[in-house]
Amino acid sequence: MSANEQADVVVLGLGPGGEYVAGTLAEAGLDVVGVEAELVGGECPYWACVPSKMMIRAGNLLAEAGRVSALAGAAVVTPDWARVAGRIRDEATAGWNDQVAADRFTAKGGRLVRGTGRLAGPRRVTVDDRTFEARRGVVLATGTRPRIPPVPGLEGTPYWTNRDAMAAKELPASMVVLGGGAIGVELAQVFARFRCAVTVIEGQDRLLAQEEPEAGELAADALRADGVTVLTGTRVRQVDRVGNAFTVRLEGSGQLLGAERLLVATGRQADLTPLAVDTVGLDPAAGAVATDGQMRAGEGLWAVGDIAGRGSFTHVSMYQAEIAVRDILGQAGPDADYRALPRVTFTDPEIGAVGLTERQAREQGLRVRTSVVALASSTRGWIHGPGNDGFIKLVEDADRGVLIGATSAGPAGGEVLYGLNVAVHAEVPVDRLQHMIYTYPTFHRTIETALGALH
């Protein structure tokens, strides 16, 4: 038996957070082994954030062309999915080839090991028949996988997940989407704009159930305007595959829906069992790896990204990676702070949010003041015309006089969110926000109106 291989740090999973940790530590002079079972870079650049935003950009252009007649003349467009698929294949993913990312990592001095890594006790990792001993420790960054609901008949059918949708060379004529969260609504809108007949089924009573009710209503209205059938408070009883089509039977009514494709977008989940976390004293049945403020999951063990259970967002993974790198290098730095966690659903209109929703704040026993102001009521919203749907919602801790949550929905909702993110994170007093200068005429000027409407 060959001797165990030595390293300073072993990183399991080279998604955005893991790749950053491994690459930065290697640049700092540490001997780093990065273990990746699939593509270096992870879900985001190949099957999620980047290709989906390319799809959304294309769909938004089609929608904008449809608004030309109201403001500027006449325009006729013919949707062509091949252009979108080609850009994803050639520009974003290089045909789902990670050589550039792999070379980027090894050029920093890291050692790339392809395969599935498992813990084998403190500071020990096995990959196939190789065992690595990490002098400083191990970083877990293996992400999550799609959560597939236990719907009778679903297992064994050729349903799509986000990966299949991103790699689609052609769009189906019809599709049923299970799940009305961010992924489900984004893809539903894109496909509908490329003339796919789409039905979204959501078990909760509204879309985007984790966000403000107003956000869910806006998303539903936007999807319906694009021809999407939206069914909320609806569950699936049975899925069948008949010939080249799916049939979906709904609970209660027994209604039967048919579609060429079925997209499952019901969330994501971590699976700790394959990592053998029990060998380091962690519960393999847990939904995430618990960490402290420095991303430590145990002695010589850190976890970053989706697996740490703080949200499946690339920006959270990168934020946590920065903290873990500092801690591994022995550098001082603040603990992770999730009070102002931002997120954006990239529909048209975009729906950005930060911090607590009104309901979450009240459930924490806080005395809150809120306001909701329609974006169309602003000068910029009026100028913008068609496509100006959206709103600003603020949630204030009335006792402390600071914003603890906000939603920014509109044509640039994700960008307008930045100022609200700063206000929540820095706990800027509301009375100070009310007396700053807001640029005219901008969408973000609606925040000034919303501050004055707090009650």
Describe the structure.
The protein has 15 helices and 22 strands. α1 (16-27) packs parallel to α10 (314-328), α3 (49-66) packs antiparallel against α5 and α3 (49-66) packs across α8. The longest helix is centred in the N-terminal third of the chain and has 18 residues, at 49-66. It is an alpha/beta fold. β4 and β5 form a beta hairpin. The chain is globular.
Please state the structural category: alpha/beta
Report the helical percentage: 25-40%
Secondary structure: number of strands: 22
Beta-strand residue fraction: 25-35%
Main β sheet profile: 8 strands, mixed
Low-confidence stretches: none
Distance between the termini: 71 Å
Q: What overall geometry do the principal axes of the alpha carbons give?
A: globular
In round numbers, the mean pLDDT is: 97
Counting H and I runs of at least 4 residues, what is the number of helices? 15
Q: For the CA atoms, what is the radius of gyration?
A: 24 Å
Set out the fold topology.
Layout (H helix, E strand, L loop, with lengths): L4 E8 L3 H12 L4 E5 L6 H5 L1 H18 L1 H4 L9 H12 L6 H9 L3 E4 L2 E3 L4 E4 L2 E11 L4 E2 L15 H5 L7 E5 L3 H12 L3 E6 L10 H13 L3 E4 L3 E7 L2 E6 L5 E4 L1 E4 L3 E2 L26 E3 L2 E3 L10 H15 L13 E4 L4 E6 L2 H6 L4 E7 L4 H6 L6 E7 L4 E9 L2 H14 L3 H4 L12 H7 L3
Parallel strand pairs: 1-2, 1-6, 2-3, 6-17, 8-9, 8-14, 9-10
Antiparallel strand pairs: 4-5, 5-6, 7-15, 11-12, 12-13, 16-17, 18-19, 19-22, 20-21, 21-22
